[in-house]
Structure formats: C-alpha cells, structure tokens
Write a structure and sequence with these properties.
With 376 residues, the protein is α+β, with helices and mostly antiparallel strands. The chain has helices spanning 2-18, 26-57, 125-153, 159-185, and strands spanning 64-66, 68-70, 72-87, 91-94, 100-105, 112-113, 118-122, 187-189, 194-199, 206-207, 214-217, 221-229, 241-246, 251-256, 259-260, 270-278, 289-305, 310-311, 317-325, 328-335, 337-342, 345-350, 357-359, 371-374. Helix 3 (125-153) packs antiparallel against helix 4 (159-185). The protein is rod-shaped, with a radius of gyration of 45 Å.
Amino acid sequence: MKKIIALYITTVLLISCGEEIKKSSISDLNSEKATLVNQIDSLNKQLKIVETQLIKLDTTKKLHVVTILPVKNELFKHYIEIQGVVQADKNIEIRPEMGGTVTAIYVKEGQRVSAGQTLIQLDDITIKNSISELTTQLNLSKTTFDRQERLWNQKIGSEMQYLQAKAQKESLENNLASLRTQAKKMKIIAPFSGIVDEVFPRIGELTSPQSPTVRLLNLDNVYIEADVTETYLPVVKIGTETMLNFPSIGKEVESEISQIGNYINPDNRSFKARINISNKDNSIKPNLLADLKIVDFKQEGIVIPSTLVQKDQKGNDYVFTLKTENDENIVIKKLIKISKEYNNEAFISGGLEATDTLIDKGARIVKAGDIVKVIN
C-alpha cells in the first residue's frame, strides 16, 4: 500500500512539475492551476484515509497514553483573602474614680469574677469617719426637726424655726449620701463577669484615676476587625459568608460579616469589616492575627482543575477532551471561557458540557485529532 501511494504521488509530481507548461494565456494558466489544486486536494484526502488505515493496521505504532477526568458540576466559591485582628468588647483596664492607697486586693490574676464583685479596696478611713460624724449630726437633726414639726402642726413656735430644722436635716442627708457615694468609689468593682488578666498595683501603693488597677477580660464573645479595599464594596455585605483561620493556634471558624463600616479611610482606601464569633473555650485571644477569606463569588456550575487549562497562540484558553468513535479515543480541542479561578480550580462559564470527559495526565503531549490510549 505504501509503495502504491509513493508511486502515485511521484507520478503526479512528475507530471505537474516536470512537464513544460506551454500555455501562456492567463485563463489557460488559471485552468491548469485549478486542475493541479484539485489533484492535490484529492491526493491529500486519499492520503489521510490511507494513514488512518495504517494506524489501525500498524501494531508497532505506539499511541500516547492518557488518563481521563469527568467534568464536575458543583458549587464554586471564590474568596477575597485579607488579614484581620481579634478584638474584644469586654477587654478593659479598670481605673479608680478617686485616688487612694491600696489597702486590700481580693483577687488573683487568672481568677474568674462576677459582675459587681469587689476587686480592690482603697483607703477610705477618712470618709468612714466623716460618715460616722455626719450620721450622729443627722440623728440629732432629725430629732430636732421632728419636734419642730410637731410644734408647728400644733401652731406652736415660728415657721422660721421649722424651716431651719428641715433645711439642716436635708443638708446633712445630702452630705451623708455624697460621702457614701465617695466611699463606694474607693472600691474597685468588676463591671462585668470575666477573668482578671492582670493586677497592676500592690498593697500600700498609691493609685490615681490616671493609673490602671486591673485588666478584666471576658472572651466568651470576640470579633475580628479587618480593613477591606473599597473595590469590594459591591460584594462585601452584612451576612456575607467568611472563613476565619488562626494559624497560631491551628483553628478554623466559619462565620459571616456582622458589620460594615460607613467610612472610607483616605490613607489606604479601605473600610472596616467586623465578624463576630463565639469563643466559649477562650482559645482566641485579643490581638491574635486571623486570615480572612470572604466569599465574593458563589455559583453552581462546571468546575475543572486549573492545571488542565492551556493557551493557544491567539491567547484563547482551551482544554483537551476525549471523544470515542468506532472504538477509538480521539482528542478534541475545546475553547473555554473562565469566569473565576481559586485554589487550583477554574469555574467554566462556556465551552464545556457536563457530559464532557477531560484528558488529565498526558494533556500536554497530545494534540487535536490524536488517537490515544486511555488507562485508569
């Protein structure tokens, strides 16, 4: 068969190239050209048929070996990746409202306390003495007022004496209430339940409203705060799905955007995003760094490995698929359209069907039209 083809091609070439073309008119030459082109096309078709038959009959020819991969139709998610910092609303340094000397410390670092519990006592002996003195004066004033009130009700005595006794009693009551309020301020009290993280002063030291006394934390609920580029304003909304990863402690948490800032920072063109998370085991600490992944694209469709996508000379993306005809596995080139890529996966919006079969291993060594051998 090969000898016959070679002889036929040689004969045609000798006829077309070796023979002198005696015709000189343009129409004759065009006619001769058309005849030769038809002969070449006819020979090419015959040659292709013969080559196909040879491939089938030639058992010595080695076919490219490939593996296949079915097209997946699944949910695809694309994420924005940024970094955030853990914050806690209940993370405070308690400072005294009034200065004084520390006389007692009732808690230790790491101790859990309840709201309203006294943590530190400041020296209030002077205030207590004043309260005792005013209490004595107030008791006397109340007795005097009661007597004046009874006499006044009986129309005995002057109105002025009654009013003076009343004013004296009320003044002492107000002064006593003020002293008692000051006495309360000499106690450092926990405003909420939590854990004492640090106690700053020691017994005998002098404190002031400018100096912290206790750091109190409640980490049952914390939040992540992050700066998001203004470009993502259209897609980052309250309720947007997020994934939080804490590399330092090896923990990952699913959550959603809880709050979006309404102010664009002119320095870095970003806005604040807040994600509230539950932290019952207190493993997440304030100022811990978190890697945030915020979903900005989510859709059901065809998803393929990015490694299978190739580019042709025109810059078009394509993949190789497999088509079976007459018990032969034929390589088909398909141009595709990629909408999004993430984590080595590509979301295909055009060019592939759910029934297509992708060529996986060996996709870089085959070409369109090749007949290949498939292995598992």
